[in-house]
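Homework help board

Subject: predicted structure for assignment chain

Our instructor gave us this sequence and asked us to write out the predicted structure in token form, then describe one feature. I got the tokens but I'm not sure how to describe them. Can anyone check?
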Amino acid sequence: TLLEQITALATNQLRSELDVSFAQVQVQQAKLLLESSQNNADAAMAALSTALGYSEFHQFKLNDRSPSTNNVSGDISGMVQTALSRRPELLSLRDDREAAIHFARSQRDARLPTVAAIGVAGDAPWRNDSDLKDGDYYAGGVQLSLPIFAGGLYVARQREANDRAQADAELLRSVENNVIRDVRIAWLDVNDAVQQLETTKELEANAGEAFTLAQARYQTGISSIVELSDAQLNLTSAEIAEANARYNVLIQQANLDYQMGVIE
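My token output:
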């Protein structure tokens, strides 16, 4: 539109051909930017198609989302507790630790003496009819086992089981610390992204006002095409920055949900 306006002014000898040349350069730069953006969009669609399990390229229709910048929770302790209670790798490691603890206890109990009670009862097929109980028999006993001659096998098994249980506990603690760190970093990234979004919104508004003023100055002949070009470039850059900041908020919020283990 600007190129058409300047061309019309140059035709009426109200602007020079230099202004037209500047406007044409801007149009070509805009076309290059548009082609690069289209290529990036197609590449993103190809990556999304592969991520969804499609072997062929699909052109999806995406729904635009507005980031929720007003409901960023400040309860970082609650987020950490949610992550510690819902992260699947932590649940798996806790099960492994409990299993290792129970196995260590079983190896300890294997070293203890065992007592077994044995009893038998029966009826002899041949007996004296004058005594009905003559053929019945009963027997009972108690067996005590002491595992003392095993060459240290039970002690070694118990120590190995205890070491494994301790290793599982240390691994769980290490992963919990990493989860706490990741949640805190993700929460900080969300707050930083929200602040950047607010800043880019202000930048876009100021760039828009500057472009409007520069356009009015150029139309009245007060300023040159260079000032108008700079103002238009600043506005375009501010709009791109605002779009990137807006989607960065969504990305960081999704990352925080992932670190908390609450992605549906």
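Reply (TA_rk): Your tokens look well-formed. For the description, you could write something like this. The chain has a mean pLDDT of 88. That's the kind of observation they're looking for.
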